[in-house]
From TrEMBL:
Residues that hold NADP(+) according to the record: 83, 134-138, 158-163, 223, 246
Catalysed transformations (reactions): shikimate + NADP(+) = 3-dehydroshikimate + NADPH + H(+)
E.C. number(s) listed in UniProt: 1.1.1.25
Origin species: Rhodobacter xanthinilyticus
GO annotation terms (biological process): amino acid biosynthetic process; aromatic amino acid family biosynthetic process; chorismate biosynthetic process; shikimate metabolic process
Protein's name according to its UniProt entry: Shikimate dehydrogenase (NADP(+))
Keywords of the record: Amino-acid biosynthesis, Aromatic amino acid biosynthesis, NADP, Oxidoreductase
Keyword Oxidoreductase: yes
HAMAP family tied to this protein: Shikimate_DH_AroE (MF_00222)
Any one Gene Ontology cellular component term annotated for this protein: cytosol
Pathway: Metabolic intermediate biosynthesis; chorismate biosynthesis; chorismate from D-erythrose 4-phosphate and phosphoenolpyruvate: step 4/7
A GO molecular-function annotation: shikimate 3-dehydrogenase (NADP+) activity
InterPro entries: Aminoacid_DH-like_N_sf, NAD(P)-bd_dom_sf, SDH_C, Shikimate_DH, Shikimate_DH-bd_N, Shikimate_DH_fam, Shikm_DH/Glu-tRNA_Rdtase
Assembly: Homodimer.
Gene: aroE
């Protein structure tokens, strides 16, 4: 231990990590709020995860974000796991506490809800079923948060049906699994529609779920934010739906971590969006 104040450090661990927008995001806030701290990307191999996590607090780190492929594995090294991280089975935010303990949290669901609340203030998730495409890590956080918001039914469809069945087994009977070839059918009378898969992302497979049954009153959102206006969002907008892009989820999920690490609750603003988009 040193007896003089240290500059707080944070960062994101993943592999690869060079594409991450988190350094631009947190760097923007550090500068905006005049906080003497730093946030850096760290490309860490799976075999080095434990040794790095044990060393970071000693080097002055107050916490870090966690991205693919370490989101599940970090739970094994956490001393305290929040209820939502335990429910989701993955963490995206670690807090290195002054008592030496590692606290693991998952803020993806928080970011998802905060983004919709801000961008679609009339969104009422408890009013009607939700349709969720995909059953990976992002889906777990989103399904958990929709259940918490009182959504009466969550229709789930995934290319690999077994993964959707696993979510149903874990989250209960409000989750209803649809076959992948019938994913379009689950849109009927759903007022929340979410793509949680990587379909539609630049360089990945095209989003091809038929949208004929989409309700024009639905709020439609996508976790993919490259491009910002995905094919799903463009088509849904043309059908009269309220559409919300995935960048806002990324910005909002970062708020709780920044607050815990640097002691200031940051705001999600238009200039933050512009800075992260330009990074
Ligand atoms: P993941 O656990 O690897 O899951 C990927 C999902 O995409 C699975 O449901 C997978 O289906 C589906 N998928 C991939 N390729 C497919 C294809 N060719 N056809 C049909 N389905 C396909 O990844 P994740 O962590 O959930 O992340 C998913 C996406 O969300 C990524 O693009 C990630 O960048 C984004 N994300 C965004 C935010 C944000 O803040 N906006 C936060 C978290 C994640 P199978 O199970 O059949 O493979």
């Amino acid at each position: 231990m040193t007896d003089h104040p240290r500059i707080p450090l944070a960062g994101v661990i993943g592999s690869p990590v060079a594409h991450s927008r988190s350094p631009a995001l947190h760097g923007f806030w550090l500068k905006k709020y005049g906080i003497r701290g730093h946030y850096i990307p760290m490309d860490i191999a799976e075999g080095d995860l434990e040794i790095v996590l044990r060393a970071l607090p000693k080097a002055g780190f107050v916490g870090c974000n966690v991205t693919i492929p370490h989101k599940e594995a970090v739970l094994a090294f956490a001393d305290v796991i929040s209820d939502r991280a335990a429910l989701i089975g993955a963490a995206n935010t670690l807090i290195f506490r002054a008592d030496g303990k590692i606290h693991a949290d998952n803020t993806d669901g928080y970011g998802f809800i905060a983004n919709l609340r801000e961008a679609a203030p009339n969104w009422k998730p408890a009013e009607a079923p939700a349709a969720v495409i995909g059953a990976g890590g992002a889906a777990r956080a989103i399904v958990a948060s929709l259940l918490e918001m009182g959504c009466p039914e969550i229709r789930l469809s995934n290319r690999t049906r077994a993964r959707a069945e696993t979510l149903r087994a874990e989250f209960g009977a409000r989750v209803v699994v649809y076959d992948w070839v019938q994913a379009g059918n689950m849109l009927e009378d759903a007022l929340t529609v979410v793509n949680t898969s990587s379909l539609g992302m630049a360089g990945k497979a095209e989003f091809r779920v038929p949208l004929d049954a989409l309700n024009p009153r639905a709020v439609v959102t996508d976790v993919v934010y490259t491009p910002l206006k995905t094919k799903l969002l463009a088509e849904a907008e043309a059908m009269g739906c309220t559409v919300v892009d995935g960048l806002g989820m990324l910005l909002h999920q970062a708020v709780p971590g920044f607050e815990r690490w640097f002691g200031h609750r940051p705001e999600v603003t238009a200039d933050l969006r512009a800075a992260v988009l330009g990074a």
